[in-house]
């Protein structure tokens, strides 16, 4: 009798194991793009609401794929390269060119995201403002705000043959001031440091992904030091001409109404989720109409398309039923829905 029961339990584990494999397969098969639309370009995934070609993107999220390049490059706006897109973080990393200005004591400029009228903004939390130069004062000034506020840093030059950080000698860096929301464009102002004379050639200011810059800061500072002081004559010193920048996006509850579904969250109350079931939306900095979406806990995928969020809840519940019926630690299944438990139980009993 004991042997028969043990055999039945082993057979059941095999059946549930097979079901578990099926659940895993379904959980990894969620779509990221609209049907019939490209899902990647040059190895970069293109999840909706972004898309390539007519009918494949939500308004303001159109990209192009330059297949004449080898490998192909994903482009935003007027040919700005896209390095990656993160749905959970609502970020887009792009590669932007920087210009080295020679023999100009002062100059003004601007920095804007590609297609500044769209949903993309400069991430103040993920970027830094950096200036290279001698005796330079650099300012990053928000456009379109009533506040006269700027992010600023200054760098002097002393006879230091080797510099290994942007801490005020030959280069400087600062965080980008957050004014309650991210912005699509900034003004840039570069002046000669008051009280200093001469030494104003080779200057550059730029916005840059702070994580990336932290990895290359020492090399860039050292190269600038070598370029200015000429202490590495045996080497050809090359300064970078492009850097990555992180952009963020959000949706507007009215403008982007087609991406939201009214979803009850409790008695006499409701809020909005995105198109996929098992998703939710959340407000940005207390602005009820400004939203981002993500898959619910236990689910992964694309919340902006139907059935885009695929989860492991069924897989976990089925596994719990194995333990409950065979090994009997019922506490292993706490926190899973009754519907999932019943589904797994029926599979076990069959």
From TrEMBL:
GO terms for molecular function: polysaccharide binding. It is found in: Membrane. Residues 37-94 form the Wall-associated receptor kinase galacturonan-binding domain. One of its GO terms (cellular component) is membrane. It comes from the Eukaryota. Pfam families: GUB_WAK_bind. It is a single-pass membrane protein. Keywords: Signal. The keyword Lipoprotein does not apply. Residues 1-29 form the signal peptide. This is Wall-associated receptor kinase galacturonan-binding domain-containing protein. It comes from Zea mays (Maize). The gene is LOC100191439.
């Amino acid at each position: 009798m004991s042997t028969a029961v043990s055999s039945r339990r082993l057979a059941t584990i095999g059946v549930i194991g097979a079901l578990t494999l099926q659940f895993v397969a379904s959980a990894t098969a969620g779509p990221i793009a609209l049907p019939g639309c490209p899902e990647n370009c040059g190895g970069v995934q293109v999840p909706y609401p972004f898309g390539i070609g007519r009918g494949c993107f939500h308004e303001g999220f159109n990209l192009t794929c330059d297949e004449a390049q080898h490998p192909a490059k994903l482009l935003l706006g007027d040919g700005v390269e896209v390095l990656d897109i993160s749905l959970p973080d609502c970020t887009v990393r792009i590669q932007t060119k920087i210009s080295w200005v020679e023999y100009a004591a002062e100059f003004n400029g601007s920095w804007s995201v590609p297609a500044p009228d769209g949903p993309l903004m400069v991430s103040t939390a993920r970027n830094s403002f950096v200036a290279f130069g001698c005796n330079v004062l650099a300012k990053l000034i928000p456009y379109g705000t009533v506040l006269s506020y700027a992010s600023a840093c200054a760098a002097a030059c002393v006879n230091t043959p080797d510099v290994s950080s942007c801490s005020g000698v030959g280069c400087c860096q600062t965080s980008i001031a957050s004014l309650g929301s991210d912005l699509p464009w900034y003004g840039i102002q570069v002046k000669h440091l008051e009280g200093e004379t001469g030494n104003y050639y080779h200057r550059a200011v730029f916005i840059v992904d702070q994580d990336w810059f932290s990895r290359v800061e020492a090399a860039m500072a050292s190269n600038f030091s070598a370029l200015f002081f000429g202490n590495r004559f045996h080497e050809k010193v090359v300064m970078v001409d492009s850097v990555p920048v992180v952009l963020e996006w959000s949706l507007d509850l009215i403008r982007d109404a087609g991406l939201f579904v009214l979803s009850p969250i409790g008695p006499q109350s409701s809020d909005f989720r995105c198109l996929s079931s098992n998703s939710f939306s959340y407000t940005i900095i207390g602005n009820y109409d400004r939203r981002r979406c993500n898959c619910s806990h236990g689910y992964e995928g694309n919340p902006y398309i139907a059935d885009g969020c695929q989860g492991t809840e069924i897989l976990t519940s089925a596994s719990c039923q194995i333990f409950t019926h065979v090994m009997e630690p019922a506490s292993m299944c706490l926190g899973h829905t009754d519907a999932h438990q019943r589904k797994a139980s029926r599979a076990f009993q069959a």
